[in-house]
Each structure stands twice: as C-alpha cells, then as structure tokens.
Amino acid sequence: MSRARVVGMTRLALALFLLLLVLSGCTQANEPVNEPVQPVVEDAIDRNGVDKREVPIDPGLVNSGTDAAPEESPHVLAAIDDAETFIEAVKARDADRLVQLLGVTMHFIGTRMDHETAETVIEGFATNFDMDSLTVTMNREGIAWGPAYGQYEFKLSDNRGENRFEPWSDEDRLLIRYEENGTRIFYNPYIRYFPFAGEMVSHYMELIQAEDADGLAVFLNPDDIVVPIWIAEETIDNYKQFLNGDSPNIRYLNRFFFVVANDRNEEHRIQVIFGDGLMGIRDEFIPEFQ
C-alpha cells in the first residue's frame, strides 16, 4: 500500500471520530435532567443563619398572602381582660363585683355606685341580651377604637342576633377608656343611662299627675332649649284624656322603652332617649314644636 493511501485513510478515520464525538455531545445536551437541582448555598441560608432547607413549611401559610397575627400589646391585653371580667360579673349577676368595677365610672359621671345601681345595670343587660350566650370581642373596626388615647371598643353578641339594634346604637358596644392616672372608665348605655331611666319616667308621670305645667316644661328642657309652657299644658291634657282619672301604671318593656297603662288595659309606649350625657323623653303625647 502506498504512503499516500495510508495518510488518506488515517485522515478519514480521524474525521469520522470527531463527527461521532460532536454527535454524542449534542445527544447528551438534549436529554432531560432527572436529578433535583440543589439551591445555591447563599440562597438556602436566611439572614439569621438558619438553613431554610431544614425548616418545614406550614401549609396554612402557603399562598395565604398574610403573615401570622402579631402579638397584642400589653395595653390591649389588659383591656381584653377588663372587658371579659365585666361581662363575667354581669352574667354571674355579681352586683358586689360590679360595684368594684364601676365605682370610678359612676364617680366620673357624678353619681355613687351602690348595690342597687349594680343590680339595675344587670337588669338592663339581662333583659336585652341572652345571658347564657353573651360574649364580648375586640372590635378594631369600631369608630371608638383608639389605643393612641387609651380607648378600646368591644362588640357584645349573643344568640338573639344583631338586627334588633339600630346601626347607630351603642347598646351592643362596650367601651373602656384608661385615664392617664391608670383609672378605667366603662361605657355602655346600660351602664351610663339605664340606671336612671326608670326614675326619670316616674318623675315625668308625677309632674303630669300633679298638672305641674311649669315643672314639666323645665323637665322637658334637657339641653338649654326653652320649652314653651303650652307644650307642657297640652302634654298634661293628652294624658288626662288617656287616663280618664285613672292612676297610671308604669311598666318597663325592653331596651329604653316603657309602657304607661290605664285601668282599661290601654297601653301607651314612651321612650327614654340619651346621648352626650343627656337624657330625655320621647312621647307622642308631647306636641312637636320648633
């Protein structure tokens, strides 16, 4: 075999070897990778030095879009404890405990907290809430929620439902405000106003029975609004026609509603209204005036 022919065959064999090598590399590049990809070491370690590959993931937090709830501040926890303590005392009908809890509150509004007043507060809650299912929960969305100035709002709920109270009513809300000196003030209409509602209705009817138009005109003036004497006189006349000489029979109905009945078993409903520390009577027998 000639030298030229040997060299040609050698070059051909080398070319075929290189071609096979290239084809082999392309095949391996197109094959799927079956082994798991390991994260970069720097990405697997968080800023606290904890290997995230060793920390199990809570399924409840996956794709939730929210973080776990933060711990409540000591002030909020104290308010929750005071709210629950108050409701527990009401549900237990513990008048002595309420005297202790509401002593400062009643002093703040200018009256004395005693056992009888505590029992009246309990009556207000017991009549208008189901005591067995009554609960109190924090209400951060309430209009009175203001931790910055020491005020916390709570929602009162029971199994009677919430539709019996108007949206603007405070009857299903409990507010607790903490003064700078550490004292606490509780607010709910059955604390602030209800203990005086029955006495107010009784005094109203006493003035009507006595036909005291001057005294009644003053009574109907809770907010420096001058009530004309003729308003009191017509109110007295309307009751004289309704009672027809009978003595009025006053009965508490619910919420802030009372019933006045005559001897013919006819009933007339009146309402105690309140707000901003003031109280008044809403009665259809009182004429309207500007």
Q: Oligomeric status of the shown chains?
A: single chain
Structural class: alpha+beta
Share of helical residues: 40-55%
C-alpha Rg (nearest Å)? 39 Å
Number of helices: 9
| Strand/helix succession | HHHHHEEEEHHHHEEEE
Count of the separate structural domains:
2
Average pLDDT reading: 80
Unreliable spans:
1-69
How would you sum up this structure, described in words?
Keywords: Signal. Residues 1-29 form the signal peptide. The protein has 290 residues and is α+β, with helices and mostly antiparallel strands. The chain is 41% helix and 16% strand. It is built from 9 helices and 8 strands. It has helices spanning 3-30, 41-44, 74-91, 95-108, 115-128, 189-192, 194-209, 213-219, 229-243; strands at 135-138, 151-157, 173-178, 184-187, 249-254, 257-261, 267-275, 278-282. 19% of the residues are buried.
Task: List its traits.
disordered N terminus; four-stranded antiparallel β-sheet; 16% strand; elongated; alpha+beta; 9 helices; 290 residues
Q: SSE layout and pairings?
A:
Elements: H1 3-30, H2 41-44, H3 74-91, H4 95-108, H5 115-128, E1 135-138, E2 151-157, E3 173-178, E4 184-187, H6 189-192, H7 194-209, H8 213-219, H9 229-243, E5 249-254, E6 257-261, E7 267-275, E8 278-282
Antiparallel strand pairs: 1-2, 2-3, 3-4, 5-6, 6-7, 7-8
Signal peptide: 1-29
Keywords: Signal
